[in-house]
Design a protein that fits this description.
Number of helices: 4
Low-confidence stretches: 93-121
CATH superfamily: 2,3-Dihydroxybiphenyl 1,2-Dioxygenase, domain 1
CATH topology: 2,3-Dihydroxybiphenyl 1,2-Dioxygenase, domain 1
Strand content: 35-45%
Order of helices and strands: EHEEEEHEHEEEEHEEEE
Mean pLDDT: 85
Largest sheet: 9 strands, mixed
Structural class: mainly beta
Shape: globular
CATH architecture: Roll
Number of domains: 1
Length: about 250
């Protein structure tokens, strides 16, 4: 059973600068591990596989967690499929980001540096909403429903799905927008490239997903922050990338 969204993965090619950016947004670093042996199951999910990786996990109350990742010294020029939407807290006016602003910033490798142009205190911004462009909103919605999202609004070319965390009193939103999008996506694409879910059993999730015919890796164990975890990765037909995590009992 899926309990929560633990984080979204952000592939960085300027690890130190992007770490500072997350701290300025009010995030707290939970742990960092450099030169960590990479998972062998990632070989089919990365454009450029390397034997090691750097990772840092950041949390912030009222926001999705962010895992900052550096996969290799060979940066991909392709962009991650997720567009984060940062908004002000409850009762305050939301901030809209234009597509042109996002793309301009993303190509520099800093997907959310657009915030520096706003005359607002960065810690007031929360991340609870994600935008995804897809070639087929109906099929994309079916994919995300497997992981606990529920469709709350749909119209031609656009859908909104909500996810309610069982572990926290939080609700997150995924907006699907019809547009041209290559399904050829990988975990080391620049910017935000995957959503990581927490389950009580990766094995059970894998068995359910395999029946749907999606691409799925084997399950591999990794010790992170002194915790032993089972992990697998799933790729949807539209290029959606998902990580499923459960603690080894």
């Amino acid at each position: 059973m899926i309990f929560d969204i633990d984080h979204i993965g952000w592939t960085s090619h300027n690890f130190e600068k992007d770490s500072e950016l997350l701290l300025s947004l009010g995030y707290t670093n939970q742990f960092s591990e450099l030169n960590k042996p990479n998972l062998s199951i990632k070989k089919t999910m990365l454009r450029n596989y390397s034997q090691t990786q750097d990772l840092s996990l950041y949390y912030k109350n009222g926001s999705l967690g962010i895992e900052l990742l550096r996969h290799s010294d060979e940066p991909s020029m392709q962009m991650g499929f997720i567009k984060p939407v940062f908004e002000l807290g409850p009762g305050k006016e939301a901030i809209e980001f234009s597509e042109s602003d996002y793309l301009q910033v993303s190509w520099s490798g800093h997907s959310i540096e657009v915030l520096s142009t706003l005359a607002l205190p960065k810690p007031d911004l929360n991340l609870k909403k994600l935008m995804v462009t897809t070639n087929d909103t109906i099929k994309a919605a079916q994919f995300w429903k497997q992981f606990g999202f529920k469709e709350v609004h749909t119209e031609e070319g656009f859908s909104i799905l909500n996810f309610k965390s069982i572990l926290k009193n939080e609700e997150y939103q995924l907006c699907l927008k019809l547009g041209e999008k290559s399904p050829n996506t990988f975990l080391d694409d620049q910017g935000f490239s995957n959503i990581a879910f927490v389950s009580n059993s990766v094995q059970k999730e894998c068995r359910k997903i395999e029946k749907k015919g999606y691409e799925i890796t084997e399950i591999e164990q990794i010790e992170v922050n002194n915790k032993l975890l089972d992990i697998c990765f799933v790729k949807g037909n539209g290029g959606e990338l998902v990580e499923i995590i459960s603690a080894v009992k």
